[in-house]
Amino acid sequence: IKAASESDAVVGDRANDPVRVNGGELRCKVLGEGGNLGATQLGRIEFALKGGRINTDAIDNSGGVDCSDHEVNIKILLGGVVAEGELTMKQRNQLLADMTDEGAALALRDNYAQTQILSVTRARGVALLDEQADFMRRLAHAGRLNRKLEFLPVDEEIAERKAARIGLTNPELAVLLAYSKIELYDEVLASDVPEDPYIRTALERYFPLPLRERFATQIQAHALRREIISTHVINSMINRVGPTFVHRLKGELGASAADIVRAYMATREVFGLVGLWHEIEALDNRIDNAVQAELIMESGRLVQRGTLWFLRQRRWLADLQATLAHFSPGVATLAERLGEYVAPAYRAELDASIAQRVEQGVPEALARRVAALDELYSALDLVEIAAESGRDEATVARVYFALGGELDLHWLGRQISALPAETRWQNLARGALRSDLSTLARTLAGEAIRLAPAGGELDAVLDAWQSRAAVARERYQHLLAEIRGAQSIDLAMVSVLLRELRGMV
Fold first, then answer.
1. Bridge partner residues of 53 (DSSP)
2. What pLDDT does residue 431 have?
3. pLDDT score, position 455
4. Phi, psi of 51 (to 5 degrees)
5. What φ, ψ does residue 469 adopt, rounded to 5°?
6. pTM above 0.85?
7. CB 3.0–4.6 Å: which of 46, 48, 109, 453 could bond 23 by disulfide?
């Protein structure tokens, strides 16, 4: 298969000239390549732009590569065990055979997540084009990417696709995914991330259970342990967040790759996202694919916000085990009781969202959990306020959400999220506003609790705060009402409203 723009001579495979067709001529809906070079990259892209579903030969055949990697690393491990006399070659060979099914499951797990992120990224389409173009430019400037050689669109074509509301195709996204993994692997391997005590636990999870149970000591001494940890962690991360996630955070905060990996891991574990993802994936072929993608994207927004939070509070990256112990219990409690704490208007929104998801076939418990993700992000701040004030987390949550309801902060947050973000700078501005709002909500709640009468009930806490901030609050409410009545809301309006909110601090 080639593209209409390519000649048979350019393909360079004369033996197959008589059976070669153009990607745009295919009448199938899905194409998988069971071997290498069954299609040119331009042929794949042409098919994809016509609506066909296709990845690349590297993606379709990566299961074999994954199996080979596991096999080599397992044989290196067992080679040392045999040399020490703990296994005979016959026992070693039998052990390898016994682990066949689990080895296959490990490889399938990696490849499932890899194709899933391609589908989810493609579903976001043109919204990511500027970010993807910026990533390609940076890789090209660094000498790591030749866009022409990889058949990736140049800036002029990006502009044309943006105007036509067409995003990158899966074959193109597959190339970006590979380059993002290669770049992050180099940075992580050169850092101290593989030595992090918590992240290092990935080394054990890489190997099948019989090896973990019998040869834990030898696993920790594996000759390629740093490379295994780096590969495993990067795959599990990029397969969840997509190819431009790390690039975006580097540009937004100037963070190092090592800190981004730690912040991502903290977010994933504190919010228990692995279990959530498994629940969503269990709905394969039971609900509409678009609905499943939406559920994953909603969890992705929490991943981004949580990772940003930890990158701004970097003291929590030094000891991930302590970080999880500090945050996880409070986050879990808030997740269970969020409906009790939020303002009535927002509770009605949550109930409506849950009902819609249930109608789409999502189990109610999962629908409830996903609906809460947007607000669950605030749990990080609530745990911190509770620790600083000495108050229990339930009291802190009630004050935080009561103030949020009083000031309509959830509505304000939605307006910020709805602001245009079609350029890198618009995206950065929107992110900064969202961060400012989160910081102000935390600061106001912390002050209300700190200045409240000792042992005061919720009404007393709110009365004391309202009395102290009366003038600024009145001005804010006036502007809020004016903006709510506007036909459209822009960045300038939100900036002014945040300034008034800041005046209450």
1. 30
2. 85
3. 61
4. 105, 0
5. -105, 25
6. yes
7. 46
- Which of 20-24, 166-170, 348-352 is predicted least confidently? 348-352
310: left (phi over 0), alpha (psi -120 to 50) or beta: alpha
Structure-token pair, residue 106:
């490990």
Place of tokens 């040869």: 215
Map residue 149 onto helix, strand or coil: coil
CA distance 145 to 117: 21
8 Å CB contact between 54 and 48: yes
- Determine the Cα–Cα distance for residues 245 and 53; give it in Å rounded to an integer: 24
| CA separation for the pair 137, 125 (Å, rounded) | 19
Least confident range from 92-96, 169-173, 254-258, 410-414: namely 410-414
- 225 φψ region: left (φ > 0), alpha (ψ -120 to 50), beta (else): alpha
pLDDT of residue 148: 94
Q: Which of 428, 291, 268, 299 is nearest to 363 (CA)?
A: 291
Contacts 24+ apart (CB under 8 A), 447-450: 447/505, 448/399, 448/403, 449/385, 449/389, 449/391, 449/395, 449/396, 449/399, 450/389
Q: For residues 280 and 296, is the Cβ–Cβ distance under 8 A? A: yes
Per-residue confidence (pLDDT) for residue 453, from 0 to 100: 65
Buried-state track 20-35, b at ≥16 Cβ within 10 A, e below 16: eebbeebeeeebebee
The mean pLDDT value for 239-245 works out to 96
DSSP code of residue 140: H
What is the chain's length?
505
Give me the residue label for tokens 């919720």.
458
Whether the per-residue pLDDT at 466 is higher than 90: the answer is no
Query: Whole-angstrom Cα distance, residue 185 to residue 435?
Result: 29
User: Is residue 289 pLDDT above 80, yes or no?
Assistant: yes
Residues with Cβ within 8 Å of 84's Cβ and at least 6 positions away in sequence, in order, are: none
Closest CA to 237 of 223, 249, 251: 249
